[in-house]
Amino acid sequence: MDSKPFNDTYGHQIGDKLLRRVSDHLLQVTNSHQKAFRIGGDEFLLIMKDYDADQVTVLAELLLQKISVPYNIQGINLQVTGSIGITMHPSPKKPLPSLLKEADIAMYQAKGMGRNRYAVYQRIKQRPNVRSYGTARVIKFAAGFRKKTKIQSIQQMAAL
């Protein structure tokens, strides 16, 4: 779901509304043990804790369905696709950059399979030719996520 063509064709206001609608759909199907991230274009990462194999398949298919539904924004019908990389860990102690890196590797595997696909990190082997963003970009993304979460937590505490 690369927003650039939408922004170039319909303007940033439509592109921003499209991103918000896709985000709303992702939030509808995830819970506190599942975190979905859009890291750019049509690239999504999903980190799961407390999972079972059936749940992973059902959730991945549901996310792909939610991403690819037709969106009507200000009378304009838009449809997008996504590539999802999934990593699963029972331990909440694994560092976020490691989890994001695994999901990123899986996402590139999904992209290699075609549009609107997902791949699970535990089910693939990392090969030297599987591209990923690299450690620096994943660490930067994770740091931004932690900073945003910390700011939201501080704002919530201030409201009490």
How would you explain this protein's 3D organization?
This protein is α/β, with parallel strands linked by helices and 160 residues long. It is built from five helices and six strands, in the order H-H-E-E-H-E-E-E-H-E-H. The protein has helices at residues 3-10, 12-29, 53-68, 96-112, 135-159, and strands at residues 34-40, 43-48, 71-73, 76-78, 83-88, 117-120. A four-stranded mixed sheet has the order 1-2-5-6. A hairpin with a 2-residue loop joins strand 3 (71-73) and strand 4. Helix 1 runs antiparallel to helix 2 (12-29) and helix 4 (96-112) packs across helix 5. The longest helix has 25 residues, at 135-159. The radius of gyration is 16 Å and the shape is elongated. The chain starts with a helix and ends with a helix.
Topology:
Layout: H1 3-10, H2 12-29, E1 34-40, E2 43-48, H3 53-68, E3 71-73, E4 76-78, E5 83-88, H4 96-112, E6 117-120, H5 135-159
- Rounded mean pLDDT is 76
State the separation between the terminal residues, measured CA to CA. Answer: 38 Å
The portion of residues forming beta strands comes to: 15-25%
Q: Please identify the structural class as seen in this structure.
A: alpha/beta
Number of helices: 5
The secondary-structure element order is: HHEEHEEEHEH
List the uncertain runs.
Answer: 149-160
Question: What's the overall geometry?
Answer: elongated
Q: Helix proportion of residues, in percent?
A: 40-55%
- Give the C-alpha Rg: 16 Å
The neighbouring-strand order within the major sheet is 1-2-5-6
Number of strands: 6
Largest sheet: 4 strands, mixed
